[in-house]
Structure formats: structure tokens, C-alpha cells
Amino acid sequence: MPNVEGKKTEDVLSQFIENETKGMSSSTINREEVNMDTQIENMVYGREFFAVDPNSLPAGIFYKPGTKISIKGATVADVQEYSVVDNANIVDVTEKMNMILSRCVRFTHPNGMQGTYKDVKDNDRLSLIFMIRELTFQKGNNLAKKMSCEHCGHEFKIEFRATNSQYSKRTFKHIEMEEELKEFFNPQTKTVDLDVNNKSWKLTPPTIGLQEIFFNDLKTKVQISNINPNVSFLKVIPFTLWDRNKISDDGIKAKEKEYKEMDMDTFQTLNYVVDKMKFGVDGLEDKCPICGGEVHSDMSFPGGASNIFVISSPLGGLKKK
Ligand SMILES: [Zn+2]
To answer: Full-prediction pTM beyond 0.85?
Structure first.
């Protein structure tokens, strides 16, 4: 368990949410290398929602059958608000992404009840952001970064594509569930079921809503009360709250107590399994256009997270007078 004493608030918060935004703020790639053929006029002004197949998301198998997720393109107002994102501040990046999701995602539970983006699995945040981006800028404006083929040396650009289309394949490589874990997957409740020392546990990746509550709780503890946050608790416990998307302050206290009193076998097992449940986007993969060999890249993002919705060189699309 990492010792967080003496660390800045930012470090602690970063540690908690680094998974989803890994590499986004630390890219060394030059802005000029971003392939931006897009013109601002391509933006979608409509409010039409499109269905997303939950199975096309990294944590797709954890949604209950009948769950409906749909998205729409971001409006100019959404993009304006997003555009002031501080790339170096992972907390701000997360909050701005959630703002986009809150406006562009519609979630419907299997019983027909309307949910919100907070019901989406935290692991799917980045994929949905990119899907919304694809709807926002529809005409041939893909974000890409330069790379050279590891087989033939050919230099080309690999695109950031979260979805398959009739023209191109998804380049986002999802983290798959390992065989070892599949054995414990319960297809009825969509959870990983474990029995440790006569106690049953059901694990599922937490929702954005649940993570937000734990995240704010952590923020308060660090900033106001100056309490050392229990990062290990925050890593493991949200996965065990499989049937809920919120928790009260008292609920968190009760869970903290339970966590401290956990026996060694239980802790070791839960900690191990949670490490294996960090589903998300692992990197990019595509085929070399010359030799057809598979090429891979990490997710490091040209120009930082702001470039997802802010076009880096829009003047290219303007006509001179
Ligand atoms: Zn090649």
C-alpha cells in the first residue's frame, strides 16, 4: 500500500484516478504532428442520440442485459467549457470529461428507469469521450499520431478510434479479462464472485457516480480535515459495492471499519482481483498499410487532453480572402 504521507493533495488524487487518463498529460509529441484535417464547420449542432452497444465498451460485460447507453455529439457550448481544461491537472481533466459525459450520455436501466452518466462504469469513461468526439467532428477528422512500423519501418499515422465503422476498424485495444478470472464470472449478476473464509463477495468495476463520491470524500479528507487518506481502501472497496451507484458518508465509515477488520486472506484475494479488473483502453493497435503487420502504440495523447475537443490548427480549414 503506497504511503501518501507528505504528498501533495494532487498526487494523492492523481493516484486515485490515474487509470483512466494515463499518459494524457505527459505526452512529448509535438502539436504539429496531430492530424487535424477537420474544419470547425464539421461540428454537429443537433441533439440526436445514437445507441452505443455496451459490448463495444471495455467494461461492457459488466452491464446488466437490457442496459441502454446512447450518446450525442458535444455542442459548441460544451466544447467552449471544455476548452479551458488544464492538461497538467488530472483532477481538472477528469472533471471536464465528466461534464461532457453529463451532457452527452443517456443511460437507461434494464427496467426502463432513466439513469445518468453516473451509471456508466468508470472504466468506460475514456472510450465514451472518444465516441462523443467522433460524433462531434464527423467528417474525416481523426486524431492521429506518427509512428513507424515495427516490421518494415514504414512511417505512418495511427488514428485514435474508439468505434468500428464501415470504413475503418477500432484502434483502441481493450484490456481483456484473464482466463484465471473468467472462471469466477457470474453471467447472471455480471460480477466476479469469490468465496473467502466463508464470506461471499461480488466484484464489479465501480460506476462513475460511485467513484465520484469516493473521490470527493478523499478530496475533503486531504484538503480540509488533513487526514491521511486510505488509498488502499479507495482502490478495493468501490469494486465490492456491486449493486449500488451511491454511498452515504456513514456508509463509507462503515465500509472503512469493515476494511480495517478484514482478514489477511480476504485482503490478499480482493486486492489481487481488483488489480486484474482494471478494464479500459490499453493502447492503440492497427495494421501497417504497407506490410500488413500489427503495430502498437501507447495511449499518450498528442497535445494533452484538451486536444480531444479543441482543434489545434483550425486555420487550415479557412479560406483566405
Ligand atoms: Zn510495415
So the answer is: no
